[in-house]
TrEMBL record:
This is Arylsulfatase A. Transmembrane segments: none annotated. It comes from Halorientalis regularis. Residues 447-458 have a biased composition (Basic and acidic residues). Residues 9-293 form the Sulfatase N-terminal domain. Pfam families: Sulfatase. It comes from the Archaea.
Length: 458
């Protein structure tokens, strides 16, 4: 890791939700539609082996902001709000920076406790963006999380119906997000240091790229593709090839949105004083195994491998091959900004992560697939090997190991098995009878339509 130049820098921390590495020319030379991100990478430190600590937004961001694993900060499927704690954003505030967050992602909101260290927040929440709404939301979330699993699931199904009545907006608000970023950058004073967090949602489902991008990639208007997590369980004969095509069109659009943000930095004379940290909080499964879609139920490689590059105006291009956990950004970002000393122990031979039992998504899991999808996962990677531990509702563990270079399943090595076994758990143990009151029945499954829209997973 190259030493950075002297002096403080602004930071644009740009998270591209659900973006896969293999859809960028930075990591895949066959890709020809991500020229703007490639332009950043041409002068950036490109992290070749970055790994997320959780394959969905809230715990992944909590790990990035705090430097902790999900089982330490406790923000996960069973406590789906950030309870507070030291984040690296507070270091910028203490250093006199203006701190802004512009994101349409409902996980990164005051309602979820993730924006308390920012002095400017734009979530496009309209009337919901007020103190009373935030307090009621936090109280309701904490109350829901305090219930036993069986009660919470039954109540969650009723909330599904309520959210449907409100007609929740599932747009990604990308144009609004970029316009707000352009306005924010245009208002920065010459002597003002700032940290700006931006989240673009286009690589995340549902997929509705502008028509020009869909046409460019040959997206069929009547393609049988999933747009929400529920579709994975309810649609027959999903066209995964067409799904990958519309995903590419969305990434293409995302790349142009990134280009507009870079142009705004240049137009306002900020590019020479600003570090751009571009990453994905996790990737996305697009039917590689014949059925898996999304990221809520899997820790497969396309989901846990993350994009990460850092374009610093005072350093040249560099390729960083050492494994990197995204949680280390809590130390790296202040360092790149010039407000903290060079961190030690950023890289590790072993990288880890995991997810809890998917309480937020139980309304989507069909009864006959409950045992397959209601699972807790832990994963560890070292020297081209990966071990995945999955635990069912009864506490029975299953282990799988993979040679990542060969792409084959292998015997579970004792050392990595010990690593995943040593990982603690922040969740409360499952309760209730999964075979009776917990597992969703067919009638409820038909009624569930848009729960994840309110939760941020559409």
């Amino acid at each position: 890791m190259e030493d950075v130049g002297s002096g403080r820098k602004n930071v644009v921390f740009l998270v591209l939700d659900s973006l896969r590495k293999d859809r960028l020319s930075v990591y895949n030379e066959a890709v020809d539609f991500t020229s703007h991100i490639q332009g950043l990478a041409d002068s950036a430190v490109v992290f070749e082996n970055a790994v997320t600590q959780a394959p969905w937004t809230l715990p992944s961001h909590a790990s990035m902001f705090t430097g902790e694993y999900p089982w330490d900060h406790g923000t996960n499927h069973t406590r789906s709000y950030f309870q507070g704690g030291q984040t690296f954003v507070s270091e910028f505030e203490a250093a006199g920076y203006s701190t802004g967050a512009i994101t349409p992602n409902v996980w990164i909101t005051p309602h979820k406790g993730m924006t308390e260290d920012f002095d400017h927040v734009e979530n496009f929440l309209g009337k919901a963006d007020n103190r009373v709404s935030v307090q009621l939301s936090k109280l309701g979330t904490k109350l829901l999380d305090s219930l036993d699993d069986g009660t919470r699931r039954v109540l969650g199904r009723q909330l599904d119906r309520l959210f449907r009545l409100f007609g929740v907006d599932d747009s990604t608000k990308s144009e609004e997000t970029v316009a707000a970023v352009e306005e924010y950058l245009g208002q920065r004073g010459a002597d003002e240091d700032f940290f700006l967090f931006v989240n673009l949602m286009e690589p995340h489902e549902p997929y509705h790229p502008p028509k020009s991008y869909a046409d460019r990639h040959g997206v069929s208007e009547d393609a049988n593709i999933p747009h929400r997590q529920k579709d994975m369980f309810t649609m027959d004969d999903i066209d995964f090839e067409e799904l990958r095509t519309v995903y590419d069109a969305s990434v293409d659009y995302t790349d142009d949105l990134v280009g507009r943000i870079v142009e705004a930095l240049e137009a306002n004379g900020l590019d020479d004083d600003t570090v751009v940290v571009l990453l994905s909080d996790h990737g996305q499964a697009l039917g590689e195994d014949g059925e898996q879609f999304g990221h809520q139920f899997t820790v497969a490689e396309p989901v846990v491998n993350s994009v990460l590059l850092v374009d610093h105006p005072d350093t040249g291009p560099e390729s960083e091959e050492r494994p990197t956990e995204l949680r280390k950004l809590a130390e790296l970002v202040p360092y790149y900004a010039g407000i903290a000393s060079r961190p030690e122990g950023v890289f590790s031979d072993t990288v880890k992560g995991g997810i809890e039992y998917p309480e937020n998504f139980t309304g989507y899991i069909p009864k006959d697939r409950w045992d397959e999808y209601y699972r807790k996962y832990r994963y560890a990677k070292r020297d081209g090997m990966k071990v995945v531990k999955s635990v069912d509702e009864d506490g029975t563990a299953n282990y799988e190991a993979y040679d990542l270079d060969a792409g084959t399943e292998v015997a579970v090595p004792d050392d990595l098995r010990a690593v995943v076994d040593e990982i603690t758990s922040a969740d409360h143990p499952p309760s209730g009878d999964a075979a009776t009151d917990a597992a969703p029945d067919d009638e409820v499954d038909e009624e569930v339509t848009r729960r994840l829209e309110e939760l941020g997973y559409k």
